[in-house]
Write a structure and sequence with these properties.
- Two copies of one chain form a homodimer.
- Chain A has 342 residues and is of the alpha+beta class.
- Chain A is built from twelve helices and ten strands.
- In chain A, strands 7-3-10-9-8 form a five-stranded antiparallel beta sheet, sandwiched between helices. Chain A has a three-stranded antiparallel beta sheet with strand order 4-5-6, covered by helices on one side.
- In chain A, a hairpin with a 5-residue loop joins strand 9 and strand 10.
- In chain A, helix 2 packs across helix 3, helix 5 packs antiparallel against helix 12 and helix 7 packs antiparallel against helix 8.
- The interface between A and B is medium-sized, with 30 and 30 residues.
- The first copy, chain A, binds a DNA duplex (30 and 30 nucleotides) through helix 3.
Chain lengths: 342, 342
DNA sequence: TGTTAGCACTCAACTCGAAGGAGTGCTAAC
DNA sequence: GTTAGCACTCCTTCGAGTTGAGTGCTAACA
């Protein structure tokens, strides 16, 4: 069977109505709601078809219809194609460029959660593809060196390196020059074991000490800080009984604490990004079991210089997709503006 | 009226029983539970007295008794006096000394939450009283300096300082020497505006540029990183209906996300610490409104060099105080061991 | 005087059935 | 193809009745 124009209108009306009220939608409501001027009986026939086709379903025999996952998917797909969403005016917007990335990200998560009334999460941009701008080794004391590495985007990494023997100022200076000339301009991704080995060779036969230090610097660069993810508005899930009834709240709250699980979701969305930067996962489509009754909308953001991160919004399937996507687009562009001048 | 020995035994029996079952305790239960060999009628008389004295209360006329806040307080106080708690064997213990403080703290929170089955939080040790070990300014590029400050305990702070004019290598070297000779050995707390002003004077009439840089270094030192607090096991609160019924879960989950509120609680417990390092807040005693139906147990820990932080456990009032306090004591000593050798 | 048995009473929790109502599917007529 | 009408379904709500745990009080007992 085909989804003819009238069925589409009815389907959309059902979904819109359900998004607003959260209650199953009956045929009489649709009959009044739309300007199709059809009786409820006719609508009933159409709705029976739509149910057979899998777009809507009945919680029980004598109830109205609610959208199925397939129905939501249809709605999201056609909506996204149909019109470019307008930007949304954000309330309590207070995004300023921050010294600390962390502060900014927490702010963004908060603004998003407050504006949408869903749970929000945000991942720190990966710096793997950022270029090393500056490396410095300093002697803290005879047993410890301090390595400071600055990459584009002013992300700073520190590492304290324990050393077996003291190192002379001269050697330290040489080492600093060597590291900077050889590594500056490379991305963290590019600095692999081969390059480290080559470095060691160039450092000459200064003995194992230098080798150790170079290894430690390499480690510091590669060190994959576990995925930094910040969340906000977790308690917004309590606004939606379908997410919290039957003790499901516990599972969801737990998931929001397990940053690793959220990380996998964000990873997935980065990989699957078709270019629009926005993706919608409905129910089982998200790779996290505890979110099977949720919808997740993710957006890739960019903070200049190719630093990409992801914002995610988690809410009930009857989420206000328009508003959420609008909010995310707005945030995307604000962040873009904020860091354009760099 | 006095709390005679028999009343104490009965009160403890009521509390113990309620901690185990979570159900109001009736007189017949006590009559069998204790070896007082008293009939339920006698117990009823005693319980009526205890209620009048405020140690227990009835949810409704025909129900058993549950402990009041005052009752819990009595229980905790006498228990804590009576015996030194034994340490508790921790399950899934995996505490290793970590390069990153953050990783360790998250681990501790997780271990505590898993072992107690309550919600746990931990604050990063304050470094205000730690001494500055090392300061270094480096030139990133003509417009930016990088300030790196290392304090005892190997805590590293970074700051990028924008400068109006380029600075010569010579001046930078001088500045570094000045900063290190003047500030090393002082605690972050001690470095106030007066000292900064004195520094500026010593730097001479090098003009406003140097002054600005010194100010920025001062700011970097004082910069109060907002209280780093990590939580784990938030979803454990769902194990206790009295915390989650009537939509109270939302408020609690929200509180666990608002690190600032948790910070005030931790601050309060640091200030009130009588020396034992362990404190119990029952109901309203904690300074956070949303925790009025909870008990909070806090413990101060120390990571060598006077770096003190706080661990907190939040659960229902009918918390297994013995186990919780034992767990915290165990953690305290493990952390102490872990960092003793520094 | 303290303890106990006995009894009437209270009140939350559970069960059950009836009533109400929203909504459907089907049929027959337009 | 559309619609009015009607029987049917099934969730929800409500009140009544029942149950059972537990109490407070009284009177008797050691």
């Amino acid at each position: 069977m085909e989804l003819d124009e009238r069925k589409k209108i009815i389907l959309k009306a059902v979904i819109r109505n359900y998004l607003e009220t959260g209650e199953p939608v009956g045929s009489r409501t649709i009959s009044k709601y739309t300007d199709l001027n059809l009786s409820s009986a006719t609508i009933r026939n159409e709705m029976a078809d739509l149910e057979e086709m899998g777009y809507i379903l009945q919680p029980h025999t004598s109830a109205g219809r609610i959208p199925s996952d397939q129905g939501y998917r249809f709605y999201v797909d056609t909506m996204m194609e149909e019109k470019d969403r307008e930007f949304v005016e954000l309330k309590e917007m207070l995004l300023e460029r921050q010294d600390k990335m962390e502060t900014l990200l927490k702010q963004v998560a908060k603004v998003v959660a407050q504006n949408t009334q869903y749970a929000a999460m945000i991942s720190a941009p990966s710096t793997h593809r950022n270029k090393v701008k500056f490396i410095q080794l300093s002697r803290l004391n005879p047993e410890q060196l301090l390595a400071v590495i600055v990459v584009e985007g002013n992300v700073i990494k520190n590492n304290i390196i324990p050393i077996a023997d003291d190192i002379s100022d001269e050697n330290l200076l040489k080492l600093n020059i060597l590291l900077n000339t050889q590594l500056n301009g490379l991305t963290m991704e590019e600095i692999n074991l081969g390059i480290i080995a080559a470095l060691k060779q160039q450092a000459g036969v200064h003995g194992s000490l230098i080798g150790e230090v170079i290894d430690a610097v390499g480690d510091a660069i590669k060190a994959d800080d576990d995925p930094e993810i910040y969340t906000s508005g977790t308690n917004n899930i309590f606004r939606y009984p379908e997410l919290t009834d039957n003790g499901r709240a516990s599972e969801l709250v737990g998931t929001f604490e397990e940053k690793q699980q959220l990380g996998s979701l964000i990873q997935e969305s980065l990989e699957a990004d078709p270019g629009t930067g926005i993706q919608v996962y409905i129910g089982d489509e998200a790779p996290i079991k505890s979110m099977k009754d949720c919808s997740v909308v993710t957006a890739t953001y960019e903070l200049g210089e190719g630093m990409k991160g992801t914002i995610g919004i988690v809410g009930p399937k009857r989420m206000d997709y328009d508003k959420v996507i609008g909010t995310l687009r707005t945030i995307q562009s604000k962040l873009d503006e904020l860091y354009k001048k760099e």
